[in-house]
Amino acid sequence: MGTTHRRWRLDLGYDGTNFSGWAVQPDRRTVQGELEHWLSRVLRLDEPVRLVVAGRTDAGVHARAQVAHVDLPVGVDSTALLRRLRRVLSDAIVVHALTPAPDGFDARFSAIWRRYVYRLWDSASTPDPLFRHMVTLIPEELDLGHFNAAGNQLLGLRDFAPFCKPRSGATTIRTLLQLHAERAEDLPGTIECTLVADAFCHSMVRSVMGALVAVGAGRRDDNWFHQVMTAELRHNEVLVMPAKGLTLEEVGYPDEDHLARRAAEARSKRESTTPGTGNE
Amino acid sequence: MGTTHRRWRLDLGYDGTNFSGWAVQPDRRTVQGELEHWLSRVLRLDEPVRLVVAGRTDAGVHARAQVAHVDLPVGVDSTALLRRLRRVLSDAIVVHALTPAPDGFDARFSAIWRRYVYRLWDSASTPDPLFRHMVTLIPEELDLGHFNAAGNQLLGLRDFAPFCKPRSGATTIRTLLQLHAERAEDLPGTIECTLVADAFCHSMVRSVMGALVAVGAGRRDDNWFHQVMTAELRHNEVLVMPAKGLTLEEVGYPDEDHLARRAAEARSKRESTTPGTGNE
């Protein structure tokens, strides 16, 4: 990026139901594809626009506070651009803010943590049809004590290979900072499971949820969970939970002074020679 | 209803988005139509099943705690029926409970109050795409103090004819018990306007909201509101707000001892010779 371009930070949310995920794919409707198309059209650009995102969500996964960056030719009127984007975009995507990115900002590599929430209804919940696009229903009653005790064993720095789709050249070592399930007060009867990590590999949240739900619902015992979490590769008895229960809720960044340093560290640890498609 | 039948109370919720309202209509998908169809099929009844409901919601209006009653032949296993209904019904309708109705219970006429919430995003809100099917967006910022001050003037027993679609033979006199708008804590930035009345006439909530939003958003002044609320007939400058923002949240019933008496009183005050289609 030279002096002809300026980097912008986009804060946005979307209902992932009718998208094939974040990342651009040929002949598929994706959030990135929709945004890049309209940014380019609204600004009448000849060159392609490329967005970089904090959390590359899979098909059907939602986001409340997703963050992306984009380099645009200098001279963009961000207020007018934001207003025009809101007019043309589907109401399934809302761009909350478009602000000049601080020096060294990279939406993906500057991020220091991502917070996801997975929502469940069990047999003790009262499902609310108004929220059925963002909650997964399970037939059993979930033992939250058991669920959380098993989940606690995953906290800290570890290799999450048993829960990740392998990607050549990319590490599956992550630091899980928080994992806790509780019955929400704002969505009565709904179980909200919060997961915070420095980053997540592809399908990691939904695989961890699949293993913990199996234990919490009594389908599997603690021995099984121990085998799963200590396996060297993705365990074929772990179900990947449905996408619709998952929402990216927040992305954390360091102070402006530390943005560039953080980006350089993260890039060297995680960047792959092949383009990734998973959640970050 | 003789000794061959027993009355049941249904507690249910639905996402009204894809229904032409509660009440059965030829060739339309309605909540009542769907429920009556499946009750009859699951129980293999020869006679038609007829549901009576507390709040006859319009097309696109939602319900979280709707109440209905139905008279079914004796011998129904309610646990099995509830389980089978859940299996066959669209996930846009959830029957929470199916319980024997107490003596004298009438879902419509025994009810002593209905609580509706109308949800809005204004220019000070951060719209969340995940809730766009249940919130109406307005371009201005709403002055809640002004909105509530105007709304207070409607409290108590009065003729709501200026806000109701007329129905021959039916009174438009209602008692508005509560009307209050505030920014919700559980849906950040969303304005929730709660309206409680003994009953509502057709389109009353959405017309009252239309008048109050016009005042709160600064499109109309207090003189205009006074003219509207003291008009003898439905005022043609009052906009009926979109259905999707409206949800029936709760229905109140008296103690079992007073159910039959309440039903007789309400029926004599409100029942019309023509079948009604509005919210009650």
> What number of domains of chain A?
2
Radius of gyration of chain A from the CA trace? Answer: 19 Å
Oligomer: homodimer
Instruction: Please identify which CATH superfamily of the largest domain in chain A we are dealing with.
Output: Pseudouridine synthase I, catalytic domain, C-terminal subdomain
How much strand of chain A?
Answer: 25-35%
Structure description:
Chain A has 280 residues and is of the alpha+beta class. Chain A is built from six helices and ten strands; from the N terminus they run βαββαβββαβββααβα. Chain A has helices at 31-43, 78-88, 144-152, 204-216, 222-229, 259-270, and strands at 5-14, 51-53, 62-73, 93-100, 113-121, 136-137, 156-159, 173-183, 191-197, 246-252. In chain A, strands 1, 2, 3, 4, 5, 6, 7, 8, 9 and 10 form a ten-stranded mixed β-sheet that branches. In chain A, helix 1 packs across helix 2 and helix 3 (144-152) packs across helix 4 (204-216). Chain A is globular and about 60 Å long. The interface between A and B is medium-sized, with 22 and 22 residues.
In short:
The structure is a homodimer of 280-residue chains. The first copy, chain A, is α+β, with helices and mostly antiparallel strands.
Question: What are the defining features of this structure?
Answer:
homodimer; Alpha-Beta Plaits; 26% strand; ten-stranded mixed β-sheet; 2 domains; 280 residues; alpha+beta; 24% helix
